[in-house]
Amino acid sequence: MNLLEFPDVNISEIVDKIDYVSSKFDNIQQNSKKIEEEIQKVASVSEETSAGIEETTASVQEETNSIEIVFQNALKVSELSDNLSNMVKKFKVK
Fold first, then answer.
1. Which domain of life is it from (predicted)?
2. Could you tell me the CA-to-CA distances from 77 to 21, 68, 69, 81, 83 in Å, in that order?
């Protein structure tokens, strides 16, 4: 293709359009970089939240285990109390 074949072609307009497209492409690259940074921030927050949930779950499990131990001990105390009460009933005070 020879530019002489297209006498109506304005080189300056073509250059302006190329510059315009180039600047838009630069904007797209910058926006892509910003989006990537924001995605990394969201991923970081998600990891921190996940770690917090794991810690909370471990705490709840520990509390559940402690409550189970207290419950078992309460049952033993109740059983001992019943046994003691039955023993005391066998004695007669004169």
1. Bacteria
2. 83, 14, 12, 6, 10
Q: How far apart are CA 32 and CA 24, in angstroms?
A: 12
Residue 93 lies inside a defined structural domain of this protein = no
Q: What average pLDDT does this structure show over 64-86?
A: 97
DSSP notation for 13-36? HHHHHHHHHHHHHHHHHHHHHHHH
What's the domain count of the chain?
1
pLDDT at 91: 79
Range of the domain at 25: 11-88
How far is the first Cα of the chain from the last one, in angstroms, to the nearest whole number?
131
Spatial neighbors of 86 by CB under 8 A, at least 6 apart, are none
List the structure tokens of 56.
Answer: 């909370």
Is 84 within a domain? yes
Model-level pTM? 0.56
**Residue 6 falls inside a structural domain:** no
